[in-house]
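Box 3.1 — From sequence to structure: Putative endonuclease 4
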Amino acid sequence: MHIGCHVSVRQGYTEAARIAQRLGGTCYQYFPKNPRSLQIKSFSRQDAQQCRDFCKEHGIISIAHTPYPTNLCTEGREEQAAMVASVRNDLEIADACGSIGVVVHFGQYKGNHPDPLFGYQLMIRSLNEILEGWTGNALILLENNAGQGNKMGMTLEELVQVRALINRPELVGFCFDTCHAFASGLWTGGNWEEVQKRGEELGYFTHLKAVHLNDSRYPTGSHRDRHADIGYGEIGAERIGELIRSRGVREVPLFLETPAERPGGHKSEIAFVKQLFASPQ
Ligand SMILES: [Zn+2]
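Predicted structure (token representation):
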């Protein structure tokens, strides 16, 4: 199994991989550039290559995460072009670092177009533009939403359907966020078998490349996206244990995006999840 957490690249990409390793992880997530802006980053190819080599040597895998302002449903042509260029830049950095892909939240349409499918059309247009001519190995990893503010992207059906409708679906995989799934009401804590069966019927799990492993501060169906440490939230360690040992998830790398409030921080949380994974059913 692979478990790790989100780490900072403040000291470079290679150092980020080293930090992940020191925390006891065999995988990690990072922001390829400033998470608060869509500004293009010219990055050090040498550092990225070193990071790639280090990870290969130590059996570490990684994923990148797009900056917060990234919204695949951006409507204005100019804003959309800036967003597309930013995600393409993230893909280039992720690819240079040898990462599996770049996590992008399912889009949230904030306009008032009368057609309820308009937001999805914008999203498909954005994905087509991002992936046009892309020759790298890094994938786009679409993440499910919690339903905070907008209800788009809370179901596996939407994820699978958007992937199927773009020009190059082979370049898109999925990232399942446990806190978002719980807060959205998709996973209530007690219905994993059902969610898994539905996901298998849809072909969701075939393309599942990463799990954002987070507990939730708020109850299921609350649509509130607040992550908690594993075992410190409304989902609880037992249900998280069931999920990570399930057939749909057990071979997928797990990435913590938790506040690390427990004693010992992420290092002890990573050890805790390893134990949870190994503990008998
Ligand atoms: Zn997430």
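Summary of the box: The mean pLDDT is 97.
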